[in-house]
Amino acid sequence: MKGFDFDFLTITVTDVVDILFVAFLIYYTYNLIKNTMAVNLLLGMVIILVLWFVVDALNMRLLSAIINKFMSVGVIAMIIIFQPEIRRFLLMIGKNTFLQKNKAWWGYLFGSKDIERDNLVRIKPIIDACKSMKKSRTGALIVFVKFYDDQLFANSCEVIDSKISKRLLESIFQKYSPLHDGAVVIAENKIKSASCILPLTDNDKLPPQFGLRHRAGIGISETTDAVAVIVSEETGEIAYAKQGRVRMNVSFGELEKLLNKDF
């Protein structure tokens, strides 16, 4: 393909597309790992890579042989270390495809606006429960997943499989309820389980006032495509965790929009 000749450099359209794709990849990778422990892991791997080049240039054979052995399994090590980030990256790609981003238009064309209205009806008991728990400062952690993973949740949860109800959510998180510790998991328009023990985030840059509920909500959103609603027991403030990030002091109007979009 013909391109522009700058004597020392020939740039083709393919090169431009290649650079754009690499920039796109770097941007998405940065969005995935910023404010997470993966930044420190990546920095450590970069330091080892630089050390490898230095050792090789200085012809330090013993140290070079050791680092060579480490680098030979580098790709496998990266897959293992960055497994949560790779999973989130693939989920992000799937969510941002043309069909996914334009599903509202498809719904409008094929009459699924009724489904959207039904979704708002399903969200209302959750919003009402959050209003009540905010007022009474009842701590709560509600997790929304698109696909319920039995292996992930069943071993650490009490299975409920019930219709979503304001009173049921309030009774689960009531202080003296045996199920109030842990999270409620909602999927397939049902309260699937309660008292779920979730993985905590490894992010060491979170505010010190974040308790186990916030860390668990952020943690599950880091490793899966779940979103989490957290009601603070100390302040009654509502937080919303998605893709490892948390939005604080969410209003009920914002919460309704977020849940309608993600749930």
From TrEMBL:
Pfam families: CdaA_N, DAC. HAMAP family: DacA. The keyword Iron does not apply. The keyword Transmembrane helix applies. Belongs to the adenylate cyclase family. DacA/CdaA subfamily. GO terms for biological process: cAMP biosynthetic process. Keywords: ATP-binding, Cell membrane, Membrane, Nucleotide-binding, Nucleotidyltransferase, Transferase, Transmembrane, Transmembrane helix. The lineage of its organism: Bacteria, Pseudomonadati, Bacteroidota, Sphingobacteriia, Sphingobacteriales. One of its GO terms (molecular function) is diadenylate cyclase activity. InterPro entries: C-di-AMP_synthase (IPR014046), CdaA (IPR034701), CdaA_N (IPR045585), DisA (IPR050338), DNA_integrity_DisA_N_sf (IPR036888), DNA_integrity_scan_DisA_N (IPR003390). The gene is dacA. This is Diadenylate cyclase.
